[in-house]
Design goal:
Blueprint lengths: L3 E2 L2 E2 L1 H15 L1 H11 L7 E6 L6 H4 L7 E6 L14 H12 L4 E7 L3 H8 L11 H7 L3 H8 L11 H19 L3 H8 L4 E8 L4 E6 L4 E4 L16 E2 L2 E2 L14
Parallel strand pairs: 3-4, 3-5, 5-6
Antiparallel strand pairs: 1-2, 6-7, 7-8, 9-10
Helix pairs in contact: 7-8
The structure holds zinc ion (ZN).
Length: 257
């Protein structure tokens, strides 16, 4: 394995080996695209998702450099505009919407989310707990999602199950979409019809993407791709498993949860 020294995984060695491999196999093909992007970006979406290492936005949307203005944090949270504290989320939202003028915002949750599990289990709620005080304060922003779960229809009774965790991740996406509307720039452009908000959910076990159906309030498989068929080829250069043009897409084969 790259970066492995005497059986011990060396993170710096792994990343350095990866950069060396990138230079050898990919950098030359990226140069024309990146030299053009160096003069400015025009992303198709603000993509809000969890910091979880298993969620790779460009991979699950078949997109590449310059396509997604990405905001990642624990639990893919967007605290309401007037929430005191860290302003990094608000800055990212305003930069994407006001400065870059993105036409779309996507909030993407995922299955097996550690933040959602902590929320469901009531973990990290003691600000005095060593090593987790910031997590405690941050996860408090997801409290309304937990309350929203309690009002969700068709929720199984009894102790929390895997399905409960899945549903919490999904209602959390809906909650953040609502929170986005508390930002003046988002609200004005959404009401003017120049900005769309979309809910997305990524199921790790099936590696499939689901979209929130605004009409039913349920997450449903991305249409247009049937399991077992080969997705239509896109134009563009495939670099390291990622196309470096635009036009995101996804696939799913079963209803979520
Ligand atoms: Zn997560």
């Amino acid at each position: 394995m790259r970066g492995e020294t005497g059986g011990q995984l060396n993170a710096l060695g792994l990343l350095t080996a990866g950069a060396r491999e990138y230079h050898a196999s990919t950098a030359d093909r990226m140069r024309s695209v990146m030299s053009r992007l160096a003069h400015g970006q025009n992303p198709t979406a603000l993509f809000v998702t969890c910091a979880d290492s298993r969620v790779v936005p460009n991979l699950i949307t078949a997109s590449g450099p310059g396509d997604l203005f990405t905001l990642r944090n624990v639990g893919n949270l967007v605290p309401p505009s007037e929430t005191p504290g860290d302003g990094s989320v608000g800055a990212a939202v305003e930069y994407a919407v006001t400065v870059l003028g993105v036409p779309s915002i996507v909030v993407c949750g995922h299955s097996h989310c550690g933040a959602m599990r902590a929320l469901l289990e009531g973990a990290h709620t003691d600000a005095g707990e060593p090593g987790t005080s910031h997590m405690c304060r941050w996860l408090a922003n997801a409290g309304p999602s937990l309350a929203r779960l309690g009002t969700a229809p068709d929720l199984p009774e009894g102790p929390p199950t895997a399905e409960t965790l899945c549903r919490l991740a999904q209602v959390n996406v809906e909650e953040q979409l609502g929170n986005l509307m508390s930002y003046e720039a988002v609200r004005e452009r959404a009401e003017a019809g120049t900005l769309t908000l979309t809910g997305m959910y990524y199921d790790l076990e099936t590696a499939r993407v689901h979209l929130l159906d605004a009409a039913t309030g349920r997450f449903t498989p991305v249409p247009g791709v049937v399991t077992g068929t080969v997705p239509p080829q896109r134009t563009g250069t495939n670099v390291g498993g990622q196309l470096i043009d635009e036009s995101p897409s996804g696939a799913s084969s079963r209803p979520s949860c």
